[in-house]
Write a structure and sequence with these properties.
Blueprint: H1 2-18, H2 32-44, H3 46-54, H4 63-78, H5 84-99, H6 101-116, H7 132-154, E1 161-164, E2 169-171, E3 189-191, H8 197-203, E4 210-213, H9 220-227, E5 231-235, H10 239-251, E6 257-259, H11 262-267, E7 276-282, H12 303-321, E8 324-334, H13 343-352, E9 356-364, H14 366-369, E10 374-381
Parallel strand pairs: 4-5, 4-7, 5-6, 7-8
Antiparallel strand pairs: 1-2, 1-3, 8-10, 9-10
């Protein structure tokens, strides 16, 4: 297990230095699930860990020492299934192999002091593990109690769900790799949270429907629509994300056209077509509904970035609306629980486009649904 702690510390150190997606820093093999648990716990609990560790060091550490202290304290304070002797001993040994005896000595002293004084340590409320701006918004919208419930939800490890061709969702046992599940290579399922089902149900894909998935990667909703017999054109402008989209479609053996722009998507329409019958815009968003799955996303959140995303969402919606055939259906969805990105975006769109009307909308709030946060709305174009 020492190697797992070493990999976890390297991932945390790299994330602290770069701010890149932490999921890309996890090992592909070995004890990935355990490494991910340590890394995600440390990142979720970064604020209280900084406060607590600050009381046990004279000068704030940097680099790998800082990372080893984070992962060690995260295990001791927030991972009850890890025995103290393993959390301390294995982390110290990993620090010794990576950084030498001096760093290992500091890690050993700090972690043993935390274990000894654990009953005196105030971990604080769950909401304090989020940036202050996020905490203020949630308290204002949901009240103190529900904001705390929402924060607690996002601080728990997320299940991995797989969706089958029959439309059912199944949670995998913790630690089980998706590639080891029977049917993976044969394309019998995709990884997808049940909260995504509402957007697909709103677009109601049927055999013969020509549908544009405007922001398609990684392809979960694309797959769901294709499985129901629709002819799907999947558009993804981000080159890296498009690679993953293509890989998923290939594994699932689906005849989906993948394109890199709306202009290319239009060229994929059947001859004589006046536009797509249906368009899904699963828009880039703040990810506030999936902070549980993307713990690093909370630290990238800001009011300024939210405003930028709202502008981008409106631009994508306006462009997508122009690709619909008369009488077509536009479905807008996010994995956000921020009103500006959800009902606010829909209201603003309807104010700009008088030829559309709202058919239905709904939001998944994790503390109510027990599922990831998500929003979807169906907008019908007049004939």
């Amino acid at each position: 297990m020492g190697e797992s702690r070493r990999e976890a510390a390297f991932a945390v150190a790299r994330w602290l230095a770069t701010g890149d997606f932490v999921s890309s820093m996890l090992p592909e093999d070995g004890d990935r699930a355990f490494v991910q648990d340590i890394v995600y716990t440390a990142i979720r609990r970064l604020r209280p860990l900084r406060r607590i560790l600050g009381g046990f060091v004279k000068r704030w550490p940097k680099g790998e020492l800082e990372a080893f202290l984070y992962i060690g304290a995260a295990q001791v304070l927030y991972m009850p299934d890890v025995p103290d002797f393993a959390a301390v001993g294995e982390t110290v040994e990993a620090a010794k192999r990576s950084c030498g005896p001096a760093v290992a000595g500091v890690v050993n002293g700090v972690l043993r002091n935390i274990v000894r004084k654990r009953d005196e340590i105030d971990l604080g409320p769950e909401i304090d593990t989020f940036p202050s701006a996020v905490a203020r918004r949630w308290k204002a919208r949901f009240g103190e109690e529900n904001a705390e419930r929402l924060a607690a939800w996002h601080n728990t490890p997320a299940e991995t769900f797989i969706a089958g061709r029959d439309g059912t969702f199944t949670a995998l046992e913790r630690g089980r790799r998706v590639v080891d599940v029977p049917g993976f290579a044969e394309g019998e399922f995709i990884v997808q949270d049940p909260s995504t089902a509402y957007a697909v149900s709103l677009i109601d894909p049927k055999p013969g429907d020509v549908i544009l998935d405007a922001c398609a990667a990684p392809g979960g909703k694309t797959v769901q629509m294709a499985w129901r017999g629709a002819e799907v054109v999947a558009c993804e402008v981000n080159a890296k994300r498009r690679v993953r989209l293509v890989e998923n479609i290939a594994r699932l053996k689906l005849g989906v056209k993948v394109c890199s722009s709306f202009d290319e998507a239009v060229r994929a329409l059947p001859p004589g077509s006046t536009g797509f019958a249906k368009v899904l815009v699963d828009a880039p968003c703040s990810n506030s509904g999936v902070f549980r799955r993307r713990p690093d996303a909370r630290w990238n959140w800001s009011e300024a970035k939210l405003a930028e995303l709202v502008r981008l969402q409106s631009q994508i919606l306006d462009s997508a609306a122009g690709l619909l055939a008369p009488g077509g259906l536009l479905v807008y969805s996010t994995c956000s629980n921020e009103p500006e990105e959800n009902d606010g975006a829909v209201e603003a769109f309807l104010a700009r486009h008088k030829g559309f009307s709202l058919v239905a909308s709904g939001e998944s709030l994790p503390f109510e649904t027990g599922r990831d946060g998500a929003f979807a709305a169906a907008l019908a174009a007049k004939i």
